[in-house]
Amino acid sequence: MRAEGADSSLKPVACSLMRCPFCGHPDTQVAETRLSEDGTTVRRRRRCTACDKRFTTYETAEIRLPAVVKQDGERQDFSRDKLREGFRRALHKRPVSTELVDEAIDRVVQKLLALGEREVTSRYIGELVMAELKRLDKVAYIRFASVYKSFQDVDDFRDAIRDVEKSGSE
Ligand SMILES: [Zn+2]
C-alpha cells in the first residue's frame, strides 16, 4: 500500500471577478465554460458587461515543483538529481534496489507537488527523505539522521557525507 498524497490542492477561484482587459471594468460574465479534451484545462468565454467585448481565459492547475529555500535563505530550483544524490549517499553500500529508491523519490516529489506551495524549505525535504529512509533501510536512516539533524540542510548534509566517505574506513 502506498500513500498517494497527490490530492489536488486547487483553491476555489472567484471567476466573476475577472477584470475586462479592454476597458478595465471589474465585472465580466462567463458566457461559456469548456473542459479541454484531456481534462486539464478549463476554457471560459467571457463577456464584459460594460463594453460588451469578449475574451477567453484558460485555467490550468499549476504543477510546478516548489523552489527550495536553504537554511541560509538562498533559493534554488528543486533538483531531482540532488534528491537522488542524497539518497545514494545515505544508502552507500546498502542492499537497497534502485527501483525502491526511485519509488521513494517519486513519493517525495508527489508530496512536494501535493503541497501546492511555491517554496519549501530544504529542511522539510530532509524530513521527507528521512521518513523514506526509515522505511527503506535502518542503517541508511541512522546515517542520514545523525548527520542531517546537526545540519538541517540537505546540501550541507551531502557535503558532510562526502567528507565522511573520504576519511571513513571502507
Ligand atoms: Zn470591458
Architecture overview:
The chain is of the alpha+beta class. The chain is built from five helices and six strands. It has helices at about 80-90, 100-115, 120-135, 140-150, 155-165; strands spanning about 30-35, 40-50, 55-60, 65-70, 75, 120. Helix 1 crosses helix 2, helix 1 runs parallel beside helix 5 (about 155-165) and helix 3 packs antiparallel against helix 4 (about 140-150). The longest helix is centred in the middle third of the chain and has 18 residues, at about 100-115. It starts with about 25 loop residues before the first strand and ends with a helix. Zinc ion binds next to loops. Zinc ion (ZN) binds near residues 22, 23, 25 and 48.
- What level of helicity do the residues show? 40-55%
- What's the count of strands? 6
Strand composition percent: 15-25%
Spatial strand order of the main sheet: 1-2-3
Low-confidence stretches: 1-15
Structural class: alpha+beta
N-C termini distance: 36 Å
What is the average per-residue confidence, as pLDDT, rounded to a whole number? 81
Query: How many structural domains does the protein architecture include?
Result: 2
User: How would you classify the quaternary structure?
Assistant: single chain
Report on the biggest sheet.
3 strands, antiparallel
